Amino acid sequence: MPQETTRDAQDSRIDGKGGQAGGYRRLFRLPGTRAFTTGNLLARLPMGMFSVSAVVMIAGSRGSYALAGAVTATGLAATALAGPWLARLVDRHGQARVALPATVVSVLGSLALLLCVHYDAPDWTLFAAYAGTAATPNTGGLSRARWAHLLRDEPGALHTANAFEQAADELCFMLGPVLASFLTGTFFPEAGTLTGALLLLAGMLLFLAQRATEPPPTPRSQGPSPLRSPGVPSLLACFTATGAVFGSMEVVTIAYADAQGHRAAAGAVLALQAAGSCAAGLVYGARKPSGVRFSWCLAAMAGLMTLPWLAATTRSLPALAGALLVAGMATAPTMVTAMTLVQRRTPGDRLNEGMSLMVTGLLTGIACGSATGGWAAEHLAPTTAYAVPLAAAALALALGVATLTRADRAAP
């Protein structure tokens, strides 16, 4: 037990050994990092496009948002189930050997969905086609695994890399829906899905071509399952609760803007939350993380989630937008610190699997949060529904404190 406590104490405070010399510029002076980052960003952008594109395409063709929502929910559930299995194959056989054929399957699934909608195929074909997109590799996880391999002896630099990756996630989820809306509205309903599929394929080809930075595969893992690694199950629970914050906030904000007669502005308001998180992530990554506890980040997120609730009571959309901008600033530091803990606690030869499990937790939380937030917005009131993301953030804090309090107290 003392050894586990010591390990938890070291993990719960992300130390700054390794330095931050050169910051982000130093990261991209490493050979091959610019190329694989460019490819990964191209491949990651469609992650923020696919759901919006599918909803617009299906609802416009079939006249049913219920059908569109059910199809996208099916794809989300399939992705959550397939992700860890696919990541385990990546750890065992290498990124290029697994991610490339998986990307091709995903692209074919998107194209099949496009054709089924265009040619008015039966509804069940939409579900089958969109389920094929579950083969999409965890692009962010693949990139983080490369940084973990390149910077395995430099925890300070790895912290900066993780912060950059989280900021990239926020940027893609901020720009993706905007690009999808522009394409589907300006050209034709299938334009968003088609462009997303082409970006995914082109980006993954560029990313996977950088073989020099690819982590070596481990055909037979020597480490335990990530779920059996100390601290990982509790982190998975925190990721799930954090996902509920994201899912509920999105649905509740759309409902609130709709109630105010400004539904078209909901996307821009939510983009401000992502912008706040992106900016905070970049600033956080440029600083030494010495002494930063995961529970502190969770507490900051829970505290700031009170702001949207308070702003909603003013019935002012600009006030809500400002509150979401500030509230988003706690998201990236929380995710960066959590992902660093996952990297430390997961066996090195099963790192992709461990990070994919966290993504599964996030997706599960997003789905639950969306359902709960939607129910609250419909049966209570959009203003009252802002209590749902606040409650989810409080749950994440409670889970984090319950599992890491001893480590925090033991930390030097």
From TrEMBL:
The keyword Signal does not apply. Gene3D superfamilies: MFS general substrate transporter like domains. Residues 1-16 have a biased composition (Basic and acidic residues). Keywords: Membrane, Transmembrane, Transmembrane helix. The chain crosses the membrane at residues 41-59, 65-86, 98-121, 191-209, 230-257, 263-284, 291-311, 317-342, 354-377, 383-404. Residues 1-20 are annotated as: Disordered. This is Transporter.
